[in-house]
Specification:
By secondary structure, the protein is an alpha+beta fold. The chain has helices at 8-32, 39-66, 115-120, 129-141, 144-156, 162-181, 250-263, 280-289, 299-314, 319-333, 337-349, 354-369, 376-381, 389-403, 412-426, 430-439; strands spanning 78-89, 96-106, 112-113, 199-210, 213-224, 228-230, 236-238, 242-247, 272-276, 293-297. Among the domains are: 8-127, no CATH class; 300-379, no CATH class. Helix 4 (129-141) packs across helix 5 (144-156) and helix 9 (299-314) runs antiparallel to helix 10 (319-333).
């Protein structure tokens, strides 16, 4: 935008001129010359140029209307100094919008001020909020180079460097951390939706490569029974959930778990079903944060432990392996965990192989420790879910899809920022809340 627009008539003239020029070229290219195959892609670029010209004219007019005046933070008077040309980076194809702005300066401290840019909330490099969010989302979804080349360059038609995307992730990751640890706000007097059925907290872990070694990510997935709905083919999906993932000790997850539980609509009065794989830290964390809870050892992890022991005892994919596995799982399914423990005690006493004896003793210890968490018939009769598939799925969505790709390495600060942003991104509805708060 090279001309200074100050009135509506001047703006209308710019728009007419841009639209007429574009219309003439489209007619010549498509109708007269028959260049139809790539018309939509070509028009996207040319239409973007027209829209950028229109927006530049509007921003220029807005700058003229705002002017430059007022007091500086130091107490000095700010006055007009000159007009400047700015290239504002936007989400429009082609990205850059030329704007003629009024530039002012404080008479005392000589600090510069451009009121229209402050009102637009562009960052120090001239990126609009829309482009900042788009670039941040791209970096949260895909590796930085792919975000730069494919998601933004090829699909959106804008250029944002991989370095800029990485800086946005580092910057906004800190804001996401604050959001995850802050109690959610609710309008005074706003009604709280009544819980229908129990509330669930699935806790699980995964691994990422940080600072030259594998480190565990601890994750909590929080939802209410009403949030799981049936879809086609007998499958079910969560229509609402809160997810939080952190690197470090269980306390780091605990600091974020209760605020996210409140964001999911859970309060201290409600019963919470905690699903885990049997790791002691999960139950300790649950005891600390959820006084009214039911602890359930995830059924699929129980199956995996029994199946692994069956293979060690009787070999891979043998008839005896399948038979023994089925017998023990039937007992567990029917609340007869004590019978499985007794069977293991007998088997352990009659194993000559040290490997087999250890496998039996390990499973016996695992079942004994989690005995009261394996009343699967009782849990089913009470209407409880007994599988932590939501948490395992969240590990895949939050961690694996973005942070555990081939050859991927992380530094601690980058890993923590990405985990916080991925947690917000994969918590249904949380991203919009996060960005609105950030804009405010």
């Amino acid at each position: 935008m090279d001309e200074r627009v100050t009135t509506r008539a001047e703006f209308d003239e710019v728009v007419r001129r841009l639209a007429t020029a574009l219309g003439e070229v489209v007619w010549a290219q498509v109708v007269e010359q028959g260049k139809t195959a790539a018309a939509d892609g070509w028009l996207r670029a040319q239409g973007g140029a027209m829209l950028r010209g229109m927006l530049g004219a509007a921003w220029t007019a807005r700058s003229e209307r705002l002017g430059v005046s007022g007091r500086c933070a130091c107490g000095g008077v700010v006055g007009f100094r000159q007009h400047q040309h700015w290239a504002v980076h936007t989400i429009l194809p082609g990205r850059d919008v030329g704007v003629e702005v009024q530039y002012g300066q404080c008479e005392r401290c000589h600090r510069g001020r451009v009121p229209v840019l402050a009102e637009m909330r562009v960052d120090e490099k001239g990126f609009t909020e829309g482009l900042q969010e788009l670039a941040l989302l791209a970096g949260v979804m895909e590796p930085y180079q792919a975000s730069h080349e494919e998601l933004l360059g090829r699909f959106a038609g804008v250029s944002v460097s991989a370095e800029k995307i990485e800086r946005l992730v580092a910057q906004e990751g800190q804001r996401a951390e604050q959001m995850l640890q802050a109690p959610p706000s609710r309008e005074p007097g706003a009604p709280r939706a009544a819980a229908r059925g129990p509330c669930y907290v699935g806790i699980d872990g995964g691994m990422i490569f940080v600072e030259g070694r594998w480190q565990e990510v601890k994750l909590g997935c929080i939802y209410q029974a009403r949030d799981r709905v049936e879809v086609s083919g007998g499958r079910s999906e969560l229509i609402a959930r809160q997810v939080v993932a952190v690197r470090g000790e269980p306390a780091a997850l605990g600091a974020r778990l209760w605020p996210r539980a409140k964001a999911a609509g859970i309060d201290e009065r409600e019963e919470v079903v905690v699903l885990g794989d049997g790791a002691p830290w999960i139950w300790n964390l649950a005891a600390e944060h959820f006084p009214r809870r039911v602890e359930i050892l995830d059924w699929y992890h129980a199956k995996e432990h029994v199946s692994a022991t069956a293979r060690i005892l009787y070999g891979e994919e043998t008839e005896r392996t399948a038979q023994w596995r089925t017998e023990q799982l039937d007992r567990l399914w029917d609340d007869r965990v004590e019978e499985v423990i007794a069977t293991l005690r007998f088997l352990g006493a009659h194993q000559r192989s040290a490997v087999k004896r250890k496998a039996v003793e390990d499973l016996q210890r695992y079942l004994t420790t989690n005995q009261n968490r394996m009343r699967y018939r009782t849990f089913r009769n009470a209407g409880y879910q007994i599988g932590s598939g939501a948490a395992e799925s969240a590990i895949g969505h939050v961690v694996q899809q973005r942070m555990k790709r081939s050859g991927m390495r992380w530094e601690p600060a980058g890993a923590d920022a990405m985990l916080a942003l991925r947690s917000v991104y994969r918590s249904i509805g949380a991203w919009d809340t996060f960005w609105r708060a950030r804009a405010a």
